[in-house]
């Protein structure tokens, strides 16, 4: 296999996984919640885009609408369900988010049924460019650009702004932040909104790739995000970047290497590697977060 | 300024404070003393709003009932707690710690301006913090962290400052420095409640003192009168020990 | 006050107390089993399938509880053990003629064994326990979130392997032709036995160690208890019971696929254990009974059997919402960590009552 091609494909896939990991990690950093419902939020973006497209609006307006809907969904979930659980053990939070995922999924089943629904994508995204050394699709370019923008934007937001400072303070010690009149409910709402926005942006790329959405399609994105954060370490930007990229390259390499009978074992190999990493470094490659994605 | 009337509270079923009363006038300093587990920190948490009373009343400025106000609302009323063990944000820079401390200002008119003034004031009070302003909180020494904790609490422009063991774990020189700062704040007219296990320094600072043991007030009076070693020993160890 | 039947919480036990606790738990399970059998007779076996299903869930819930209750760790991976039990039992007991049709590529040494119901059931449990024993030393090092994610990984891996091991499992296709070796009676006998095993473990030295590790790993480690080892035995025993439940489920369903034992199975397991109280075997039994009937009623409604028709997906919705509600309003479940206990006359002590 062409190594350069592998590098490009791995980077593009890794960029998507990195974004998935960022959305999960961000919420974890402020409330120790590993959000099982994250994949379902992504799935709901797909359904919203599907419905909006049906109204005949221009594509970019549909995307904006679905993004707004995703952010709203994330905020509603946070305020109605997750925030009342603040202070509960992480395992309880994880289970509660599992319950939320089930609820979101069954509502999707009730409204849209089990069969896949098409998610429209402009043809331009699916064309690919052959540079002579490697091929890259417009969608891959978009993934890379989105990932890079998100990374720079988050670094700035977390590191340089007032709300970022409050996020870091809340992540390190919610109790002391409260003593300093930091409104933790506002910080958490903001973080969930941000995580929802990230979910929406990843979903855009995700469904452009597959072209359709099903109510039970949340497992794949949730799994990728979990594996990426476990590899890199939860609650840090660096961890999400590293975990996402490692997973992206690993999968790209696997799909090249595992042929024939072995091709069914891709997840097995990935998880075997994750187990190995956890065995050597139980907190992930980059260790535990000390505060606010830093 | 602050008035507690027969307040009791605790954790789960364990009573930590039993019918404690106190009055504190504006500009006065109260030292709360007593052995480990006497309920001193609980008393501060109660005033700050981290702990709800089981019974009894808390009043601010003679009339306002404190009970319905949460921590944030009490900070806005000028009650600020400087917690035990300093608890500065180690992942934030020194200046960011101060800015978080001034969160309450942002809700008021001219908040940004007052935040800048607050920072200047903090740096003139503690020049070492100005030197380290962009460094992480984790790089400070214990004494510097305590100064940052006090400076951070001051950012909220408190009228009543609650200090939980401000000299804990500090060298004698550092502890003296911290108390010199507190004396300066008192001279400016700030009302203080200082909780300590060791009686010496707080009694030098305070106007009045109270001694707690097992959640009850065992002695209350002028700070000068509490300097009697016999009294302290009886109060800390119980009457039968004297 | 002396009551013949009480809820009994964890307490240091005398040897006699230990035996009577296990025996009374089995007694309660036997009463439950008899009640189910009686109900089956009274209804002319019209609900035999529902009741057998209930019995199978009782076994699986108890198996899951053994791990969750004694380690305080949640697991998303236990459907994998149920799956291993079902496939192992199925492969071993498939009639030779059927084996040639359904599994033409089955390795020779596995073909035509036909050991019968009980050995095949035990084998199902053993294979599940073996997997737990192999991966346990790794997974049991982790706690909390990391453990949750890793057990989820375990589920994905096992599912993928089952789907890839076509010669043994028919891959993505339905595994069919398993003889119906188990019915209501066989399942209920196993329920009683499994309850006895779970209680015997819970109050044994090993069970107490595992629970002390769950409460305070550092203190337990300092008093010489190996964190990993004590949790490992809970994991292995739990896998064994779930494997047995899976084997019996295979013998009852006679046809199943890898998808039957995937993420969808986690939710009912989790609710059963949490609803009754994750530290209680009695809680697992209660949870399994309540949930099985709830799902039955919901399915009836969804298929229009109650005169009103609701869209499919609604029963799942109630389960998800129920899980959140339990976690929020009653995180310790109905019984907390208490067990049913029939107090022998004269042995009731002060403090036995919650």
UniProtKB/TrEMBL annotation, chain A:
Q: What keywords are assigned to this protein?
A: Amino-acid transport, Cell membrane, Membrane, Transmembrane, Transmembrane helix, Transport
UniProt entry tagged with the keyword Cell membrane: yes
**Major subcellular location class:** membrane
Can you say where in the cell this protein is located? Cell membrane
Q: How does it sit in the membrane?
A: Multi-pass membrane protein
Q: Which species expresses this protein natively?
A: Chelativorans intermedius
Family assignment?
Belongs to the binding-protein-dependent transport system permease family. LivHM subfamily.
Q: Which residues cross the membrane?
A: 6-28, 35-53, 59-81, 93-113, 133-158, 187-207, 227-250, 257-280
Protein name as annotated: Branched-chain amino acid ABC transporter permease
One Pfam family in the UniProt entry: BPD_transp_2
UniProtKB/TrEMBL annotation, chain B:
Which residue intervals define the domain ABC transporter in the entry? 2-239
**Has keyword Transport?**
yes
InterPro entries referenced in this protein's UniProt entry, alphabetically: AAA+_ATPase, ABC_transporter-like_ATP-bd, ABC_transporter-like_CS, BCAA_Transport_ATP-bd_LivF, P-loop_NTPase
Question: Is ATP-binding tagged as a keyword?
Answer: yes
Q: Which GO terms describe its molecular function?
A: ATP binding
The family classification in the record reads: Belongs to the ABC transporter superfamily.
Protein's UniProt name: ABC transporter ATP-binding protein
Species name: Chelativorans intermedius
């Amino acid at each position: 296999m062409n190594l350069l091609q592998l590098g490009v494909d791995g980077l593009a896939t890794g960029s998507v996984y990195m974004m998935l990991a960022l959305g999960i990690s961000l919420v974890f950093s402020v409330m120790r919640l590993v959000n099982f419902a994250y994949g379902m939020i992504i799935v709901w973006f797909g359904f919203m885009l599907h419905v909006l497209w049906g109204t005949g609006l221009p594509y970019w307006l549909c995307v904006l609408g679905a993004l707004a809907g995703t952010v709203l969904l994330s905020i509603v979930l946070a305020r109605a369900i997750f925030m009342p659980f603040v202070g509960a053990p992480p395992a309880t939070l994880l289970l509660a988010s599992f319950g939320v995922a089930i609820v979101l999924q069954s509502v999707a089943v009730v409204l849209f049924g089990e069969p896949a629904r098409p998610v429209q994508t402009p043809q331009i995204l699916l064309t690919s460019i052959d540079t002579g050394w490697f091929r890259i699709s417009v969608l891959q370019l978009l993934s890379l650009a989105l990932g890079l923008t998100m990374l720079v934007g988050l670094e700035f937001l977390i590191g340089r702004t007032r709300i970022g400072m409050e996020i870091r303070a809340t992540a390190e010690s919610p109790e002391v932040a409260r003593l300093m009149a930091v409104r933790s409910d506002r910080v958490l709402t903001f973080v969930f909104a941000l995580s929802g926005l990230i979910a929406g942006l990843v979903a855009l790329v995700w469904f452009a790739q597959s072209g359709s959405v099903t109510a039970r399609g949340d497992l794949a994105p949730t799994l990728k995000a979990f594996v990426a954060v476990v590899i890199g370490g939860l609650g840090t930007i660096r961890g999400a970047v590293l975990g996402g990229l490692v997973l992206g390259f690993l999968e790209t390499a696997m799909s090249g290497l595992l042929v024939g009978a072995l091709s069914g074992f891709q997840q097995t190999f990935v998880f075997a590697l994750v187990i190995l990493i956890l065995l050597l470094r139980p907190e992930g490659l980059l260790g535990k977060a000390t505060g606010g994605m830093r | 300024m602050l008035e507690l009337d027969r307040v009791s509270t605790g954790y789960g079923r364990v009573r930590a404070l039993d019918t404690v009363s106190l009055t504190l006038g504006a500009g006065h300093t109260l030292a709360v003393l007593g052995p480990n587990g006497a309920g001193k920190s609980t008393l501060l948490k109660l005033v700050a709003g981290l702990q709800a009373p089981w019974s009894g009343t808390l009043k601010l400025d003679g009339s306002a009932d404190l009970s319905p106000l949460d921590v944030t609302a009490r900070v806005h009323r000028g009650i600020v707690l400087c917690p035990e063990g300093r608890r500065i944000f180690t992942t934030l820079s020194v200046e960011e710690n101060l800015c978080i401390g001034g969160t309450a200002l942002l809700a008021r008119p001219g908040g940004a301006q007052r935040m800048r003034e607050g920072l200047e004031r903090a740096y003139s009070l503690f020049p070492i913090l100005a030197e380290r302003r962009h460094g992480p909180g984790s790089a400070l020494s214990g004494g510097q962290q305590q100064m940052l904790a006090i400076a951070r609490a001051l950012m909220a422009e408190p009228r009543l400052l609650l200090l939980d063991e401000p000299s804990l774990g500090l060298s004698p020189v550092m502890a003296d420095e911290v108390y010199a700062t507190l004396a300066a704040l008192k001279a400016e007219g700030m009302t203080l409640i200082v909780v300590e296990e060791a009686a010496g320094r707080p009694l030098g600072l305070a106007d009045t003192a109270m001694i707690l043991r097992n959640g009850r007030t065992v002695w209350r009076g002028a700070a000068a009168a509490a300097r009697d070693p016999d009294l302290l020993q009886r109060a800390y160890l119980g009457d039968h020990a004297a | 006050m002396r009551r013949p039947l009480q809820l009994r919480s964890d307490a240091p036990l005398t040897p006699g107390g230990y035996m009577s606790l296990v025996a009374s738990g089995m007694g309660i399970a036997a009463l439950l089993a008899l009640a189910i059998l009686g109900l089956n007779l009274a209804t002319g076996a019209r609900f035999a399938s529902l009741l057998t299903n209930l019995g199978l869930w009782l076994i699986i819930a108890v198996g899951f509880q053994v791990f969750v209750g004694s380690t305080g760790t949640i697991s998303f991976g236990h459907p994998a053990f149920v799956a291993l039990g079902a496939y192992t039992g199925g492969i071993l007991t498939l009639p030779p003629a059927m084996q040639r049709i359904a599994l033409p590529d089955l390795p020779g040494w596995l073909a035509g064994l036909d050991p019968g119901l009980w050995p095949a059931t035990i084998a199902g449990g053993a294979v599940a326990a073996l997997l737990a024993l192999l991966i346990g030393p790794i997974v049991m090092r982790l706690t909390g979130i990391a453990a949750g994610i890793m057990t989820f990984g375990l589920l994905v891996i096992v599912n993928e392997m089952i789907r890839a091991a076509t010669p043994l499992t028919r891959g993505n296709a339905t595994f069919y032709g398993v003889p119906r070796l188990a019915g209501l009676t066989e399942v209920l006998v196993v329920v009683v036995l499994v309850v006895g095993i779970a209680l015997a473990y819970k109050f044994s030295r090993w069970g107490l160690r595992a629970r002390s590790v769950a409460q305070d790993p550092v203190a337990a480690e300092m008093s010489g208890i190996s964190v990993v080892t004590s949790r490992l035995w809970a994991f292995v025993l739990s896998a064994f019971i779930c494997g047995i439940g899976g084997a019996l489920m295979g013998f009852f369903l006679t046809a199943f696929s890898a998808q039957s034992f995937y993420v969808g199975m986690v939710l009912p397991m989790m609710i059963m254990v949490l609803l009754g109280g994750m530290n209680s075997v009695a809680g697992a039994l209660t949870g399994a009974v309540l949930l099985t009937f709830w799902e039955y009623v919901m399915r009836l409604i969804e298929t229009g059997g109650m005169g009103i028709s609701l869209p499919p997906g609604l029963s799942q919705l109630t389960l998800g919402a129920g899980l959140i509600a339990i976690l929020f309003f009653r995180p310790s479940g109905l019984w907390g960590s208490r067990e049913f206990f029939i107090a022998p006359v004269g042995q009731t002590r002060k403090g036995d009552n919650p």
